[in-house]
């Protein structure tokens, strides 16, 4: 029997368990055994290798759970692995050997662009048969229109905006909500439109605080007692400085630009303003139906690729189809928000301030 492995790597998100479940169910059709590897490449580094044989019973019902039953790590690059003494060590050889110790014929890695690039490097060096599945709330993986997890994060963000709007109206306030997205503004632009925001700031488009405030004051003058502002985490200050919060141990914690924008709005407009950082809520929760669908489609397609002997590729969603794209192509094409695309045009059409675009 063929033995295949599956691991989830990088930040968790909605829909990961739908991928795992689909892989196990599809593998049964080919009489393949599936090993769920614990905590991404850390499980392959462990001795004995930490992996669990997954059968259909084990994955029954998991598609509605948040997170990943396999566990994951976000800062575990085996080429620069953080050691207890604070140093970084190259432990890639141990990870590569872990695959062979498990006797795998192929591996499915579910990850974002960073994880997929690392897994590809391991696969090439270690002679692994590898298939990638794109997942990330940031939706920034190249060559696919959607990655698993984005839609769940979007749903959480829109629900939060709906709730913030009531309190904003009740108190005649400006509410600023900072969302995740790493270097891209996909969650911000989509949630901002769907949640009815009046200002949406994304890293792909520059802005001026003067025009952010003008928008809010114009609304007040027209009799609107509240405004909703959505800010993507990678937006910089008006002068271009990044804002990060670092603690006394030098660890960079999440969140910050929302406070800056909110404070500037409060000072410049005199309108009472409150800030909320949505943070890791976007990663968890019940996976949305669309993420379950995408996860299922990708899981089935990944096993089909293995059965056909097609490796070094990633499953992708393009034009309502699941296709296989070369992994090298996918990891090389970072995908931010298209400034001339439909979403930015829609926001402008709704008279939302999205920054300073060329006329
Ligand atoms: O890539 C997913 C993501 O949630 C980003 O949106 C965010 O910047 C980052 O991970 C947070 O990472 P961590 O969970 O390690 O704080």
Automatic annotation (TrEMBL):
Keywords: ATP-binding, Cytoplasm, Glycolysis, Kinase, Magnesium, Metal-binding, Nucleotide-binding, Transferase. The active site is at residue 138. Residues 3-306 form the Phosphofructokinase domain. ATP binds at residues 11, 75-76, 112-115. Substrate binds at residues 136-138, 173, 180-182, 233, 274, 280-283. Its cofactor is Mg(2+). InterPro entries: ATP_PFK (IPR022953), ATP_PFK_prok-type (IPR012003), Phosphofructokinase_CS (IPR015912), Phosphofructokinase_dom (IPR000023), Phosphofructokinase_III (IPR012829), PKF_sf (IPR035966). The keyword Nucleotide-binding applies. The keyword Nucleus does not apply. It comes from the Bacteria. SUPFAM superfamilies: Phosphofructokinase. Pathway: Carbohydrate degradation; glycolysis; D-glyceraldehyde 3-phosphate and glycerone phosphate from D-glucose: step 3/4. It catalyses: beta-D-fructose 6-phosphate + ATP = beta-D-fructose 1,6-bisphosphate + ADP + H(+). Its main location: cytoplasm. It is found in: Cytoplasm. Its EC number is 2.7.1.11. The record marks 114 as: Important for substrate specificity. Mg(2+) binds at residue 113. PROSITE patterns: PHOSPHOFRUCTOKINASE (PS00433). Gene3D superfamilies: 3.40.50.450, Phosphofructokinase domain. Homodimer or homotetramer. PANTHER family: ATP-DEPENDENT 6-PHOSPHOFRUCTOKINASE 3, PHOSPHOFRUCTOKINASE. Belongs to the phosphofructokinase type A (PFKA) family. Mixed-substrate PFK group III subfamily. Catalyzes the phosphorylation of D-fructose 6-phosphate to fructose 1,6-bisphosphate by ATP, the first committing step of glycolysis. This is ATP-dependent 6-phosphofructokinase. It comes from Thermostichus vulcanus str. 'Rupite'. The lineage of its organism: Bacteria, Bacillati, Cyanobacteriota, Cyanophyceae, Thermostichales. The gene is pfkA.
């Amino acid at each position: 029997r063929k033995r295949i492995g599956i691991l989830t790597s990088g930040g968790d998100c909605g829909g990961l368990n739908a991928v795992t479940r689909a892989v196990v169910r599809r593998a049964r059709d080919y009489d393949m055994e599936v090993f769920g590897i614990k905590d991404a490449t850390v499980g392959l580094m462990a001795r004995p290798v930490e992996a669990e044989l997954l059968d259909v019973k084990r994955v029954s019902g998991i598609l509605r759970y948040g997170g990943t039953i396999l566990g994951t790590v976000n800062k575990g690059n085996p080429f620069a692995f953080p050691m207890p003494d604070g140093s970084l060590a190259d432990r890639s050889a141990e990870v590569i050997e872990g695959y062979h110790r498990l006797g795998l014929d192929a591996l499915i890695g579910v990850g974002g662009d960073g994880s997929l690039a690392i897994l590809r490097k391991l696969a090439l060096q270690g002679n692994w048969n590898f298939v990638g599945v794109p997942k990330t709330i940031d939706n920034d993986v190249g060559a696919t229109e959607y990655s698993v997890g984005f839609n769940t994060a979007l749903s959480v963000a829109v629900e939060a905006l709906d709730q913030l709007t009531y309190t904003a109206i009740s108190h005649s306030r400006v509410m600023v909500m900072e969302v995740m997205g790493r270097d891209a503004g996909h969650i911000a632009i989509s949630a901002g439109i769907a949640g009815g925001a009046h200002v949406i700031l994304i890293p792909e488009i520059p802005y001026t605080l003067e025009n952010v405030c003008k928008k809010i004051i114009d609304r007040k003058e027209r009799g609107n007692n509240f405004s909703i502002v959505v800010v993507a985490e990678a937006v910089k200050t008006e002068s271009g400085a990044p804002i990060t919060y670092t603690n006394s141990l030098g660890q960079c914690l999440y969140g910050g630009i929302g406070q800056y924008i909110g404070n500037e709005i409060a000072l410049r407009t005199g309108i009472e303003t409150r800030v909320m950082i949505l943070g890791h809520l976007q990663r968890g929760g019940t996976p949305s139906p669309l993420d379950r669908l995408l996860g299922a489609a990708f899981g089935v397609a990944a096993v089909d690729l293995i059965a056909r002997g097609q490796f070094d590729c990633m499953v992708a969603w393009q034009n309502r189809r699941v296709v296989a794209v070369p992994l090298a192509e996918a990891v090389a094409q970072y995908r931010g928000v298209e400034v001339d695309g439909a979403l930015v045009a829609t926001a402008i059409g709704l008279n939302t301030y999205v920054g300073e675009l060329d006329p």
